[in-house]
Design goal:
This protein has helices at 2-12, 36-40, 53-59, 118-132, 167-178, 207-219, 322-337, 381-399; strands at residues 22-25, 30-31, 50-51, 63-66, 69-73, 78-81, 86-88, 92-94, 98-99, 148-149, 159-163, 182-183, 191-195, 222-225, 229-233, 237-242, 245-250, 254-256, 261-262, 279-281, 297-299, 304-308, 311-312, 361-365, 368-373, 376-379. By secondary structure, the chain is of the alpha/beta class. A hairpin with a 4-residue loop joins strand 6 and strand 7 (86-88).
């Protein structure tokens, strides 16, 4: 989302439309990530929640390259792709995002189901359909057919485990639990277990929001296990360690929502990184903010941590952070573009990002939804669903479509 947002911001600037832009990405189309959980469970038709990114970039007159970045020569600002192609430019912006992946130390991590990138999302979706569609009917993903309420199947035949009690884990557990009430024809309803290592859910939001989320999940028959860590994953079970010691939970699939990791390629880019492996940038989103260094290499979005002096700014790595960050990067690119290359008079002063950590959050929890504004926590499922599905998502897709 960060990269396409930057293209949009540059196109809004008259001088920015004259730039020759090349976008590199491994996918030609991108599903709407904030509602990935609803897409996974077919609550949201896939055809109506996907952006044909490559087509839109090319419609704007720019080049779109399908490929995987494998390295970067910083002095020449040259990016190398897995295909062997090498691309260079005056400005390089890294917006590689993050990976929804378990830490390396977790045995069986390769068996976990992810749902962020296209390949892993397709695999997770196929697994869910194969597990729950007892009729083996054709997948109803393109026509928006509504699910059947209150089927005759009993809850509890298959069991799915979600690891992680942040926003993503809570939303995924809620969507899976909602299948007990409304689901596509022929589907069985799963039992759902949510595992979280902390003492409460939603640790980045208020304590009250975490308590309310746990209560709403339990009302939908989700087994919520707090202070519990996954210690091993197998094909038919996950072993956990909690207040009552270690035990094995039999299951038919385990989803990882326990945190994001830096994309593996970040370690090969020869750019400054934090001790935990994220790209380290200054408040201007420059990878090398010192005046005498290379001022025209930027990074933003999920892949970065803003480091101001010795202090690392907090981030919740949400899609809502992309737009204000992209505005700063676009403005700074244009400030530098107005100067001669190599900056014989020195790089001009650039705009700095202002930390936004008081934004409201919507958390969809199956048949419920929390609207969190600071300490205020409201259960507003209809309003929240309307805002996210009927207002924000269509606005996002329209905003990036170029006819």
């Amino acid at each position: 989302m960060a990269g396409i947002e930057l293209v949009h911001q540059l196109r809004r600037i008259p001088a920015g439309r004259a730039l020759r832009i090349v976008v590199i990405d491994r996918q030609a189309a991108h599903g709407y990530i904030p509602l990935a959980h609803e897409r996974l469970c077919l609550r949201l038709p896939m055809s109506k929640s996907e952006l044909a990114t490559a087509q839109q970039v090319e419609n704007a007159g720019y080049r779109y390259v399908l490929g995987d970045v494998v390295g970067m020569d910083v002095p020449t600002k040259t990016v190398e792709l897995a295909s062997g192609e090498r691309l260079s430019g005056r400005f390089v912006v890294v917006a590689l995002g993050s990976a929804l992946a378990a830490p390396q130390w977790l045995p069986g991590r390769e068996l976990l189901l992810g749902y962020k990138f296209a390949g892993e999302f397709d695999a997770a979706h196929a697994h869910l359909v194969a597990l729950l569609d007892s009729s083996h009917a054709q997948i109803l993903q393109a026509n928006g057919t509504r699910g059947q309420p209150y089927g005759t199947d009993t809850v509890g035949e298959p069991r799915l485990v979600v690891i992680g009690g942040g926003i993503s884990g809570v939303e995924l557990a809620g969507e899976l639990a909602r299948l007990a009430r409304v689901r596509p024809p022929g589907w069985r309803a799963p039992a759902v277990t949510l595992i979280h290592s902390g003492t409460r859910l939603l640790p980045f939001l208020s304590e009250r929001a975490g308590r309310r989320a746990g209560h709403l999940l339990q009302q939908q028959h989700v087994d919520v296990l707090l202070r519990t860590r996954a210690v091993q994953v197998a094909r038919a079970a996950v072993t956990v360690d909690g207040p009552d010691g270690a035990k094995e939970i039999p299951c038919d699939g385990t989803y990882w929502a326990g945190g994001l990791q830096p994309a593996e390629v970040i370690a090969d880019l020869d750019l400054p990184r934090t001790p935990t492996g994220w790209l380290a940038v200054g408040p201007t989103f420059q990878c090398f903010p010192a005046p005498s260094s290379q001022p025209d290499i930027f990074a933003f979005g999920d892949a970065v941590r803003v480091v101001d002096g010795t202090s690392e700014w907090p981030t919740v790595q949400r899609a809502s952070e992309c737009s204000p960050q992209a505005k700063v990067v676009a403005r700074n690119i244009m400030l530098l573009a107005a100067e001669p290359p190599h900056y014989p008079n020195g790089a001009p002063p650039l705009a700095s990002y202002r930390l936004h950590n008081r934004a409201p959050y919507g958390v969809n929890i199956g048949g419920a939804a929390l609207l969190v504004i600071g300490r205020l926590v409201l259960n507003a499922p209809r309003f929240n669903t309307w805002v996210r599905r009927s207002l924000v998502m269509p606005w996002y897709l329209r905003r990036h479509r170029v006819q």
